[in-house]
Amino acid sequence: xxxxxxxxxxQDVTCTFAGGYTAIDGASLDVAPGEFVSIVGPTGCGKSTFxxxxxxxxxxxxxxVHVFGxxxxxxxxxxxxxxxxxxxxPWKTARDNVAVGLEVRGTKRADALAQADAWLDRxxxxxxxxxxxHQMSGGMRKRAALAQTLILDPKIVLMDEPFSALDVQTRQxxxxxxxxxxxxxxxxVVFITHDLEEAIAMSDRVVILSAGPRARIIGEYKIDxxxxxxxxxxxxxxxxxxxxxxxxxxxxxxVLKGYARTSRA
Amino acid sequence: MHAPAAxxxxxxxxxxxxxxxxxxxxxxxxxxxxxxxxxxxxATGLLNPFFFATxxxxxxxxxxxxxxxxxxxxxxxxxxETVLAFAIGTVAGIVIGFWFARAPLVSAVxxxxxxxANAVPRVVLAPIFALWxxxxxxxxxxxxVSLTFFIVFFNVYQxxxxxxPVILANARMLGMNSRQLLRHVYxxxxxxxxxxxxxxxxxxxxxxxxxxxxxxxxAGLGYRIAQAEGVFDTVGVxxxxxxxxxxxxxxxxxxxxxxxxxxxxxxxxxxxxSTH
Lengths: 265, 276
Ligand SMILES: Nc1ncnc2c1ncn2[C@@H]1O[C@H](COP(=O)(O)OP(=O)(O)OP(=O)(O)O)[C@@H](O)[C@H]1O
Ligand SMILES: [Mg+2]
Prior knowledge:
The complex is a heterodimer.
Chain A: E1 8-16, E2 22-31, E3 36-40, H1 47-55, E4 62-67, E5 70-71, E6 79-82, H2 94-104, H3 109-122, H4 138-150, E7 156-160, H5 168-185, E8 188-193, H6 196-202, E9 205-209, E10 217-222, H7 231-234, H8 238-264
Parallel strand pairs in A: 3-8, 3-9, 6-7, 7-8
Antiparallel strand pairs in A: 1-2, 1-4, 4-5, 9-10
Helix pairs in contact in A: 2-3, 2-4, 3-4, 6-8
Chain B: H1 5-43, H2 49-52, H3 55-66, H4 69-102, H5 104-119, H6 125-133, H7 137-161, H8 165-173, H9 178-196, H10 198-215, H11 221-230, H12 234-262, H13 269-275
Helix pairs in contact in B: 3-12, 4-5, 4-7, 4-10, 4-11, 6-7, 7-9, 7-10, 10-11, 10-12, 11-12
Residues 47-48, 84, 160 of chain A line the site of magnesium ion.
Keywords (chain A): ATP-binding, Nucleotide-binding, Transport
Family (chain A): Belongs to the ABC transporter superfamily.
Protein name (chain A): ABC transporter ATP-binding protein
């Protein structure tokens, strides 16, 4: 079966929280090695929950997770996770935050710090290594978190709305930067966003989740736009616009459903 | 994008320094006013100097005391008791606080007893400690520890329990084992809570020492006050209180200095410093 080849394979995952709320109901997703998959869905549908399952942080109520063919039991050792909310350690400087992953894996501190500096440079924070998280802007913290995740060179990168805090220009810079980093060594990426355009511009495949509760995967779209891509330019192409139109037609109903549900509550 | 941050910080700091001489002048003015009022009231006989002493008398006595070697022996003993009470109480509070926070069964079982122990008015323990440990410094240290321990304990417990789950999940995803989590996540988080209660903890260590001395000792600042009281020497009592106050101010500013150095990563630190 595909499970043996897929980098990440979630089968029939259902998540019911204590209290009886079922966020995800029977969702399955296979991510091939080197594939860039985006998950799009209305707010509150269970995207972060789904990613937590993939990271091994959350045990699904039912369903199974395989990583490179092995059944996942505990944390996913091949995954790097960039969280939706603030996850930097406030008592460490940006440099120490980026270096700590290498340090705890046994890299010598001096080496870890040198690599951290290189990564801070790459995400445009070269001059801010000595800052504590509270001394950085929200966007700077996101970039530090990106460096913190990628410095460990994980085979699978899980990203939960990584760029939603950035302004449009910085965001496009970071998106292009991410695509460039990704194309260099083709990690598997699971990228969560609520921005359909971002999803199409970045991905090989876009997966649509329905509104919760009991969110399911209601659509999968292959994005066969040529690479390398420039996220700003590709939005003007006909191929992009056609895909956008087709996916949006499906997504719109779910967004309205989700909105109606949350505004009623 | 980032450039404004630095000047802004500098400006904030400068504003504090600018207003500081004015603030100090105002504070000195209040003190002076208080002494003047005291002086006038006692000089005119509205307040009996026997019961209320006189400011000049108190200052004169304090100056005289400060020139004697015996005074520094008393001061040294109180200082030693405070430091020991603080050190022992803090270390015990950190170790046991960690233990309780990481072992839910232990904390669940002992919870009512910890609360009960903390509810005991510590003053009633002083004679017991004197009975057990004698009239030397250790009965005072024990009293200080019984006060300091709970403050640190509760703060460490809270600090370990309240680590953000996202930071914890992130640290685990970065590959930390439980020992590394302790070092990189739990300990810094708990220490920030400990430091935020440092002023209180040091203050209580001193209270324990002085109250212990007051209730039964042969040396220390509290003992001196008790002695003066015994012979209705109000000047001596007020002088003792004045010295105690100065002592607390010195210790407290030392704590502030340490705190601002060690908690540089905390956004509140600069605000805390400016209000002091
Ligand atoms: N620990 C929990 N206990 C109970 N309910 C939870 C828990 N965590 C999440 N939920 C619920 O599960 C649903 C999905 O949450 P999740 O965080 O996965 O949404 P999301 O798709 O990531 O939303 P957003 O786009 O706003 O980040 C929400 O309705 C939320 O209230
Ligand atoms: Mg989310």
